[in-house]
Specification:
single chain; TIM Barrel; eight-stranded parallel beta barrel; 10 helices; 10 strands; 14% strand; binds NADP nicotinamide-adenine-dinucleotide phosphate; oxidoreductase
């Protein structure tokens, strides 16, 4: 899948497969990024919040030293919620850590403001232990700053992450630049079809995160995934990745394990019967109220996701 691409609303190409770096531990992530990029991955997804961009940068640098060209790798970073009123400062910090002078895509990581003057750079807390969040903050304000950093050339495109249909409907009427991407948790146990449909209508490309259900890959044992994998004689991971290709989305797979990084480059073409089985599974979970969202930090903010409302 490493040679497949989609086209963004900016006209730029974005790879169909991306390499995830969340929760990739220090001491592991540089080698993982170097291995992935040296072995065909052409998109690396990172974020200030992950606390490992310096090592991601080392991995990129090592791959570039082997002859991979900077312009052939699509690098993604995200502004963290404590920087949502200081977007350029956040981007500058990420660029410095990565050792790059631009990223290909910069995203609003989550649409909320955590106290920029709080007791921690990334996760400020109140004296009672709750997260220190500025509750009356209006998220389109961050988008105005994203539009301003786009003009600096320090990022080639701007987009959002974790935006529900409700939040997009608040943002789009006031946006001068339509986001190029919405990066959301997406897999058959959380299809988020209402967001996917709105994004398709507005020309916003979906990047699907946590395709395996995040840490430990809890979706590998889901019944329809196992059945379809057996039918195609492949591993469940292949089916979970192929699902996004069939939906026209970029998918981000994280691993720090060489043989898994290699295996995750494989996809199969799912047929109509497979797609129906996966959609039936999603519909059943929706009807039963059993959708599974694996990544939902305890912000205590109403983001407008139907499964959390
Ligand atoms: N925008 C956001 O808010 C947001 C949120 C979450 C994630 N993301 C992005 O999306 C990326 C992917 O999501 P994720 O990290 O949550 O989880 P994921 O990619 O769904 O799953 C990662 C887990 O699956 C394991 N794994 C990977 N390939 C495997 C294979 N072929 N066979 C068996 N196990 C395998 C990994 O183990 P090992 O690493 O130990 O091999 C790890 O435990 C992130 O890294 C990040 O870049 C963005």
């Amino acid at each position: 899948m490493t040679d497949r691409t989609f086209t963004l609303n900016t006209g730029a190409k974005i790879p169909a497969l991306g390499f995830g770096t969340w929760q990739s531990a220090p001491g592991e992530v540089a080698a993982a990024v170097e291995y992935a990029v040296s072995n065909g991955y052409r998109l690396v997804d990172g974020a200030y919040c992950y606390g490992n961009e310096q090592e991601v940068g080392q991995g990129l640098k090592a791959a570039f030293a082997k002859g991979i060209k900077r312009e052939d790798v699509f690098v993604v970073s995200k502004v963290w919620a404590t920087y949502n009123t200081r977007v350029e400062e956040g981007l500058d910090k990420s660029l410095k850590s990565l050792g790059l002078d631009y990223v290909d895509l910069f995203l609003v990581h989550w649409p909320l403001l955590m106290n920029p003057n709080g007791n921690d750079d990334r996760f400020p807390k109140l004296p009672n232990g709750e997260r220190d969040i500025i509750r009356d903050y209006q998220h389109p304000e961050t988008w105005r700053q994203m539009e301003a950093v786009l003009a600096t050339g320090k990022t080639k495109a701007i987009g959002v992450s974790n935006y529900s249909k409700k939040y997009l409907e608040e943002l789009l009427p006031v946006a001068k630049v339509v986001p190029a991407v919405n990066q959301i948790e997406n897999h058959p146990a959380l299809p988020q079809q209402e967001i996917v449909d709105l994004c398709r209508e507005k020309g916003i490309h979906i990047m699907a995160y946590s395709p395996f259900g995040s840490t430990g890959g809890p979706l590998f044992t889901a019944e329809p995934i196992v059945e379809i994998a057996a039918k195609h004689n492949v591993k469940p991971a292949t089916i979970l990745l192929s699902y996004h290709l069939a939906r026209g989305a970029t998918v981000l797979a994280k691993s720090v394990t060489a043989d898994r990084i290699e295996a995750n480059k494989t996809v199969v073409d799912l047929d109509a019967e497979d797609i129906k089985k996966l959609n039936d599974y999603s519909d059943k979970l929706t009807k039963e109220g059993k959708l599974q969202r694996f990544v939902y930090p305890p912000f205590g903010v109403e983001f407008g996701f139907p499964d959390k409302s």
